[in-house]
Specification:
The complex is a heterodimer of chains A (201) and B (251). By secondary structure, chain A is of the alpha/beta class. Chain A has helices at residues 13-21, 34-37, 57-68, 78-82, 186-200; strands at 2-4, 26-27, 40-43, 73-76, 86-87, 102-105, 118-123, 125-126, 141-146, 148-149, 156-162, 164-172, 175-178. Chain A is built from five helices and 13 strands. In chain B, helix 1 packs parallel to helix 2 and helix 8 (207-215) packs across helix 10 (235-244).
Amino acid sequence: MIALVDYGAGNLTSVRKALTSLGADFVVPSAPDECRRARGVIVPGVGNFGATARLDAPWRDAISGAVKSGTPLFGICVGMQWLFEGSDEAPDAIGFGAIAGRITRLEGDADQRLKVPHVGWNSLDFRGSARLLKGLTSGAQVYFTHSFAAPVTPECVAATTHANTFSSVVERDNIFGVQFHPEKSGDAGLAILRNFLEVCA
Amino acid sequence: MLTKRIIACMDVRDGQVVKGVQFQQLRHAGDPAALARRYNVEGIDEVVVLDITATLESRQALARTINAVAHEIFLPLTVGGGIRSEDDAAAAINAGADKVSLNTAALRQPELITTLASRYGSQAVIVAIDAKRRDDGFAVYVRSGTTDAARDAVAWAKEAESRGAGEILLTSMDRDGTKAGFDCEMTAAVSDAVDIPVIASGGAGSVDHFADVFTRGHADAALAASIFHYAESSVTELKRHLRTHGIPVRL
């Protein structure tokens, strides 16, 4: 069973729908301890990094306990940003800190007409192999909508460029994250969600 | 590289897709879920469902339509038409919409843009602007194009951005349903004035019209309805054509 964490950041409808279509056995935990019993934990999210402040000490402890026991953790969009130490978008909210680094604002490029927010389909440039990207090829296109992004760190397994290059997929041991919305990225997105479910199986 | 988006719009009335010419003369175009399924296969990048009647009865039908469409596609889904309050927006989002599009309500109560942007994030809030050419500017109309809002489209787009809108959906009322091409001058005027993405709408009739609006019109995305509903142009063909013109697309 997968725990899909609801911390009130936007709605879970689309992630639920995608998991359902993939036949996943999942639950939206009503208490943090349910994460400790899950085979995998998904932290979704849209909108503002500040919303992650609702993942308070009991949630962090439960998720941290699960990760230490080897349970795969998958952060989506703001959920991936939360895997880092913090974000300039909401300096008071502290990240989970599984990956060193800080989320910063994307810079546009007026001359090239590159706007922020970065909204739309952009490509994943693979950097080495990753379980999350199994079956996909470098250049695969996925749907982004965000104004803040993660730095390229050793955990970066795919990067994307929009004026600057940022980490669009991170993976290290049982920590996984994607900046884009796999639940809104057509077949490529569903393949990535399926890959995570296989890691949890 | 960020690609230019091709967005299919369904104008929905009582759970059925219809399409008008210059906001009138509706003709029936089919079942929304069936169309969505086709779009998903054909490579549409995004879908917009617009409730064009927005009566109380149609709102319940709309929730069912959103749900049915959202079950067919794993693509971004925007819902608009008659969203007047935070509750209307919440109902659309809970039914499966990723974004809501505000039109008349945004002009009447611009603070609604900020309220929704704080609750759901700017990425979930599109401000739709229906405008016509007038003298040297672009006059904004509301209430399905029936009422002059006494605002200029460029100034209103800038204000919408500053209040928290994440995208602008700009419809040329002069071109809507005519298949005479997008209003590239108007689109460029708005797109150059804001930093958020601008979706051009109204007038799509041929593949060249899309190429034009992405180059001369500086559009980030282009929306069309009937050209896709009646399968007059396949999305794949359109995208191949754009690529040969050096326009980045998802293929």
